[in-house]
Amino acid sequence: MSDDATEPGRPNREVSPPAPPEHQPAALRDLADRARGYAEAASSANTRRAYAADWKHFAGWCRREGLDALAPDPQFVGLYITACASGAPSVGGRVHAVSTIERRLSALVWAYTQRGLSLDRRDRHVATVLAGIRNRHAAPPRQKDALRPEDLIAMLETCDRGSLRGLRDRAMLLIGFAGGLRRSEITGLDLGRDQTEDGRGWIEILPGGLLLRLRGKTGWREVEIGRGSTPATCPVEALELWLSFARIREGALFRRVTDQGRAVGPMRLNDREVARLVKRAAAAAGLRGDLPEPDRPALFAGHSLRAGLASSAEVDERHVQKQLGHASAEMTRRYQRRRDRFRVNLTKAAGL
Description:
Blueprint: H1 11-15, H2 26-41, H3 45-65, H4 74-86, H5 98-114, H6 124-137, H7 149-156, H8 164-179, H9 183-187, E1 189-190, E2 201-206, E3 209-216, E4 219-226, H10 235-246, E5 255-258, E6 263-268, H11 272-284, H12 303-312, H13 317-324, H14 329-335, H15 346-349
Parallel strand pairs: 1-2
Antiparallel strand pairs: 2-3, 3-4, 5-6
Helix pairs in contact: 3-5, 4-5, 4-6, 7-11, 8-10, 8-12
């Protein structure tokens, strides 16, 4: 098996069209380079990383079983997802969640497509086995806790307002919550349009609030973030403070703080830092103190900000749907997680 079989995420080999021979005109080579850039832009960096890891996992299983990973054989793939679902020793002995198996299958389809090959996931060796795995092992989704406004305020109090890192973290928490943003949308923001190649949107500060133009999963959308009722909870003021003290005039909005907290570097924060921030601030604020301490970190992540807005904003549902960029109200409802589950009591309303 060639080394290429373990790395489907290599843009020059898997994602991109083949480069023209060196004797071709320079203009044609330039077009090939641009085509590679466009091909990479067809999927997010996070997706490519996940798919590369999934392919490596599959290729490792094939190697241990003496199979050719480069042959898109539905029967082999059916055996692979069976091994994942049953926790076979050939996949490390760990039972995979149904969602993980479905993602790995999508990764294989993607990886073969990049090689000019085709894997038919509707083939009975794949589709029937996957249907059985879903019926046998499917479980309700494990959702992160939604942050209530009082939770967020408690988390903000744990951020040091006298430090650059504290100012940045406060702005990220407030912008993420008030905008109902995904992790990548928070860290992908630039101060202005077309200022960086890896930016996913930009901001405009207006008298009434903040206007965000974002490129997300569902395409471009605008998000309005109004000013808060007090300076302590206003996302616009928090952002302005960060920009002023960090001396950011252009480029990435949220960056690494360097030199032991005394300077701001040029590098954009990785979106995983949003999840780490939420976990860290939630722990410092003592959220969910009703649970044992070891169980609390798993309850919170970057999505807790997004779900928090959806669950807390007492407005017409269509406004929340627009803010989150959902195509359907049903998707928005999945984010609305109320701890007071019995606030509406249909039993009493029915006369019992």
